[in-house]
Write a sequence for this structure.
């Protein structure tokens, strides 16, 4: 087992050992946000034929070549093509046909004159100018053609992709599985939120934050409850989490008397790859895996902020990789630091900041107390400033890198149209 | 009813008529992503007493003032304080006590010496330096104090906020209601995705995109199906949507023979505020409201891209306002245009672009065919470039404003630690 890895080494080691999960076939109605695990090939051409993009009149360009404002040209309305009609009757030279948006062009017609551009005179249509071939026509195959790949494996299925799947009648698609994440807290002092607050007891809030973080990344969390500070209790809780893809525990990973997580994991057959990452908060992170194909294990620190921040940096990218995502990390922006920050060299710090957008620039300010016990500072933060390991001073006004935890902040309050 | 509003006028009119919904009390387990509708006042002080931030030994600073590497100082271990213990026994002068992370400091103790900093010599602890008062102590109230407002009304409930609520034992909170959105398509040519593709028929994909858009914004969509191009069919479908907060229809809003939406809405008692917004795609947008307190109605154009884009610009901000959000709009970034774009003056264009992050800058490129029928171009786009109404040319290399549809794009591929 290695120790004292840099943050980057730890991320690379974790991602190197993280598999992309297998695919499963799901109803298209239930795959919003999932990642496509097959190439989708169009089984239809869309539109299947030339259709009208407007309500108006179908005609032939050659018939209208001589029309002008001074010498308008009248054509009879030979028939009408409602939306949803089949493409049956052909338009003969010298005819026009009433047509509605989405309806198929009759054979022979090659343009649509919008009704705003013509006049109806009795049962004839008056045209005032030549109309070019193709005007207001959506051509067959303009959106997609049979046999064409319309969505590639790896695509995240958002509203537009779901519309495309609907439009070609795909009601079942292959997507990557959602990672199942078992979440556990440990500590004799912990109680559930509805427990009696006796002296010495504190509420186990970590699991609630971690479960919400797992939900946000699209994983499927399972709560294992609170394990007590005895090897048997921890072992029983950990065993219950072994049928998922990832096991996340918080607390119990330091070097204290009661930090049983590591020995219990090893007893259960977990290979531990590292303990201790040169970051703050979150140094005592443990990472392991049960066998070649078994679940990954993340032993997160017990302090609420440390647990959330290490989940962000190490668990979240792994869960995104498992689920088939290509973009594994949070958005990152450059921001201007509104105050000086100092630390010792050696560990990379992730400083909770509030990020503000003003006139096309971002400004970052520390949320204040950076104690890893102060969960409220995490609630106030919408970004994590990356204070590099080797750096000791970040002057006021310097440009810094900030991970964006809440992309709402990237929307300036006045960013309507 | 007004017509020909600018995009900004339309947004302002809509938001001016959009209410913030009432609040409802929900289990904290079910409110992830919702907006808090009450100030949360701490019912507890956290930590409730001074606690140890480390595993180590509690002591009194005044006892250790003379300790040095050359002349270490030994103190007996008088007792042990496990995590979860009550704060009972006091530390007398000249004593130390074994203490675990999270355990309450005994009265009299004012610091924790980490076990890495001391040696255990028989039943005594050897200290090698003075330790300052407060070392490795998390003070009572450091996170929050009874009576303090810890989360304000209007806060979006993410993982950290859910952790804070758990930590003070709040299992029920008041949040703004989720808007219920009824979604309808209309057109005789439309079939459901599993319908038979007869000549002239096309799949109604709009509802699937719009429902996914509603889900993404946290609303609660209801699918009303496909109405046919007859007033009775439309009226029946619209009536079924009137018990929600918002009714969204697509198609039937233009000026064609079969555009019955407007007359049917008026017959049902809907006040129509405007028809037609100077944007492309999406000109024929209709907006109305049923009475003072009734649902808002958005009649979106029928072209798939127009429907999605007008939902983005006009329906989404309204749904966010209803749900209590303060940030109503998408993140917007400045990007460098990689090709020239041209249009006529008069309408604001929303150009589908792919946005790419390179070396701290964003680059925007058109997805190509901007026909509003080409849904696939919407699937390829991760941004909408705002081409202002008055502007006719955007030169290659110019700086443009882009709405970010997929914030993954803001994460450069190499943005690990």
């Amino acid at each position: 087992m290695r120790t004292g890895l840099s943050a980057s080494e730890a991320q690379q080691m974790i991602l190197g050992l993280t598999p992309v999960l297998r695919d499963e076939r799901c109803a298209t109605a239930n795959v919003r946000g999932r990642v496509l695990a097959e190439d989708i090939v169009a089984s239809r051409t869309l539109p299947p034929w030339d259709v009208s993009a407007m309500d108006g009149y179908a005609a032939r360009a050659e018939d209208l070549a001589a029309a002008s404002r001074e010498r308008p040209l009248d054509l009879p309305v030979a028939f009408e093509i409602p939306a949803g009609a089949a493409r049956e009757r052909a338009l003969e030279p010298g005819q026009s046909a009433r047509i509605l948006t989405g309806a198929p062009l009759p054979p022979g017609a090659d343009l649509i004159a919008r009704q705003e551009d013509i006049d109806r005179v009795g049962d004839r249509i008056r045209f005032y100018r030549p109309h070019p071939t193709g005007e207001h026509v959506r051509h067959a195959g303009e959106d997609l053609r049979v046999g064409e790949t319309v969505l590639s494996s790896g695509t995240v299925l958002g509203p537009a992709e779901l519309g495309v799947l609907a439009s070609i009648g795909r009601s079942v698609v292959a997507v990557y599985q959602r990672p199942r994440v078992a979440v556990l807290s440990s500590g004799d002092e912990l109680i559930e939120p509805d427990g009696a607050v006796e002296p010495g007891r504190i509420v186990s809030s970590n699991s609630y934050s971690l479960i919400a973080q797992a939900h946000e990344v699209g994983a499927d969390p399972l709560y294992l409850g609170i394990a007590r500070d005895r090897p048997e209790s921890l072992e029983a809780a950990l065993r219950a989490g072994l049928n998922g893809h990832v096991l996340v525990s918080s607390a119990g990973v330091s070097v204290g008397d009661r930090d049983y997580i590591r020995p219990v994991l090893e007893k259960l057959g977990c290979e531990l790859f590292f303990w201790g990452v040169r970051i703050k908060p979150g140094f005592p992170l443990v990472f392991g895996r049960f066998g070649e194909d078994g679940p990954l294990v993340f032993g997160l620190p017990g302090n609420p902020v440390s647990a959330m921040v290490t989940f962000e940096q190490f668990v979240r990218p792994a869960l995104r990789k498992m689920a088939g995502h290509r973009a594994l990390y949070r958005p990152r922006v450059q921001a201007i630091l509104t105050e000086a920050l100092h630390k010792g060299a050696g560990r990379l710090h992730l400083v909770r900041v509030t990020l503000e957008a003003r006139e096309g620039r971002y400004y970052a300010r520390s949320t204040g107390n950076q104690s890893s016990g102060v969960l409220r500072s995490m609630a106030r933060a919408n970004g994590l400033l990356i204070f590099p390991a080797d750096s000791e001073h970040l002057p006021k006004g310097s440009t810094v890198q900030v991970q964006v935890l809440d992309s709402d902040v990237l929307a300036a309050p006045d960013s309507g149209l």
Notes: The radius of gyration of chain A is 31 Å.
